[in-house]
Amino acid sequence: MDSFGRLAPYYDELMSVVPYRMWVGYFLLLLSQLDVRPRSILDVCCGTGTMCEMLHQEGFEMTGIDLSPHMIEVARQKAARKGYPIRYETMDACTFELGRTFGAALSFFDSLNNILDPERFLQALRRVHAHLEPGGAFVFDLNTAYAFEQRLFDQRNLRPSARLRYDWVGDYDPQTRVITVHMTFWKDGEEFREVHRQRAYTDDEVRSMLEEAGFVDVRGYTSYTLDPIRRKSDRVHYAAVKPF
Ligand SMILES: C[S@@+](CC[C@H](N)C(=O)[O-])C[C@H]1O[C@@H](n2cnc3c(N)ncnc32)[C@H](O)[C@@H]1O
Questions:
Q1: Which residues contact 119 (CB under 8 A, 6 or more apart)?
Q2: Buried-most residue among 32, 34, 106, 124 (CB within 10 A)?
Q3: 147-198, what's its fold?
Q4: For the CA atoms of the chain, what is the radius of gyration?
Q5: pLDDT, tens only, 174-184
Q6: What is the mean pLDDT of the segment spanning 132-158?
Q7: pLDDT (0 to 100) of residue 1
Q8: Average pLDDT over all residues of the chain
Q9: Class of the 8-144+202-241 domain?
Q10: pLDDT tens for residues 73-93?
Q11: pLDDT tens-digit readout, 219-244
């Protein structure tokens, strides 16, 4: 595994500036826009489980799946330490089967951009749809091609005082809309590398795949607002409903 493997134990440290609490509020706002009031929620590509934990604290029954056993291991350890009854499974978003349904699902932090093949992206939407109760909703975010063009992933923190130093360089191919990000990290004097790849999907592609997967009432927003998607939106959120 060349992504979310070596990085897993340091992921939360790297994300310490991410406003997860605000994201939880935004997720709940988008659900309320659709009049969806779940009891159980599935986090698709849950990573180390930060959103699952916050939603558990809000009173929801949480399940998280992620492709990386290393990320799931961290999530399980965190939940065990806190005594949170959250179910975590190592599963691929494109093929998962949990044998039950949920009132809502989410996938945040451009996780679905990691699915490079549009056929597999559609499969993931179908799997989420199959795991929703009728009337349930799926909310997810995506990086856009504009973000990749703006070199979103060219980031570094090389301050000697930083506990985790990193240097990332993105190589974007506008033909395939795939960005390859070469990441180097330094932790406690040790260097390790990961390569992450993401594909940008157009608004038209996402909407038609959501509809093909069986979703209705599809809404797209410029992230963290209720504004429509614009040409210069670097991150977008979608919310869609499984009909009764
Ligand atoms: C940027 S992290 C986001 C994690 C978490 N949602 C968060 O907000 O912190 C992207 C996650 O997507 C997971 N992922 C990538 N492709 C996946 C797939 N096909 N199925 C399930 N998880 C996947 C990675 O293992 C990683 O944990």
A1: none
A2: 106
A3: N-terminal domain of TfIIb (2.20.25)
A4: 17
A5: 999 999 999 99
A6: 96
A7: 53
A8: 97
A9: alpha beta
A10: 999 999 999 999 999 999 999
A11: 999 999 999 999 999 999 999 999 99
C-beta 93 within 6 A of ligand 1: yes
Q: How far is CA 2 from CA 68, 182, 183, 195, in A?
A: 10, 10, 10, 6
For ligand 1, what atom is nearest to the CA of residue 43? Answer: 6
Give the tokens for residue 36: 């969806």
Is-above-0.70 flag for pTM?
yes
Closest by CA position to 74, among listed 15, 21, 2: 15
Q: Closest residue (by CA) to atom 17 of ligand 1? A: 67
Structural domain boundaries in the chain? 8-144+202-241, 147-198
* Per-residue tokens: 86: 């959250």
Ligand 1 atom closest to Cα of residue 92: 20
pLDDT for 153-165, tens place per residue?
Answer: 999 999 988 889 9
DSSP string, 177-193: TEEEEEEEEEETTEEEE
Q: Is 47 in the pocket of ligand 1 (CB under 6 A)?
A: yes
CA pair distance 143, 111, nearest whole angstrom: 9
φ/ψ (deg, to 5) at 67: -70, -30
Work out which ligand 1 atom sits closest to the CA atom of 71.
Answer: 27
